[in-house]
Amino acid sequence: MKKFLAAVAFSALALPAQAFDISDMTDQERAEFRAEVRAYLMDNPEVILEAYQVYEQRQAVAEAQRDQQILKDNADAIYNDPRAWVGGNPEGDITLVEFMDYRCGYCRKAHDEVAQLLETDGNIRFIVKEFPILGDDSVLTSRFAIATKMVAGDDAYGKMKDALIKFRGKISEKSLVKLADTMGLDGGAIAARMSDPEIDQLIGDNHVLAQKLSISGTPTFILQDQMLRGYVPLANMMELVAATRVQK
């Protein structure tokens, strides 16, 4: 009887919940079953870890599948928003999207590595989503960057984006205007454009999109059809890009 119950207990652990119904047992069988399960787990505690590892793997697969569906449902807003800045190779065979905040430490850490990835690969389309979430300084900086694109174009935005992510001074409209002037841009004209309602709309739309994608932190990357939440070291990103190409 004990061997039978042990076998049943092991099977119960391995099968989905609906495949085994303990309510079909008598009270005595149920008590013996529970005792056997407990004894088995006490003798083989590694089974709990193994089961949890399987659970985590299944959760990761399910999350990836959910992400893929969400990305598919919002593909136009993610990949084809004409207001977003596109860098790297606009005709690249792989698309990398970054939700970023200029005051985010990990965004700063990722910045040079993303630039190196784009340069060494040469075939990645890179889209930036302005996503200020770290307070008033973040919003002010993001507004100034978007205003730069509106006033001076994509090339100026790209340079301003690089300058802002590396900027370590006190954030104020005055300091940002001074920064733009030192770059040969018209800082006053850019500052005047910061109140444009289109900037409010773009930042608001990016926040709505992030909510739909369950993005709450920066940096968050989208590599083709997979979500990468948080900082990804350059070597890992290169491996992911290579694997993505193989799967295409």
TrEMBL record:
Residues 1-19 form the signal peptide. Keywords: Signal. Residues 29-60 form the Copper resistance protein ScsC N-terminal domain. Residues 95-239 form the DSBA-like thioredoxin domain. GO terms for molecular function: oxidoreductase activity. Pfam families: DSBA, ScsC_N. It comes from the Bacteria. The keyword Ligase does not apply. SUPFAM superfamilies: Thioredoxin-like. InterPro entries: DSBA-like_thioredoxin_dom, ScsC_N, Thiol:disulfide_interchange, Thioredoxin-like_sf. Coiled coil: none annotated. This is Thioredoxin domain-containing protein. It comes from Thalassovita mangrovi.
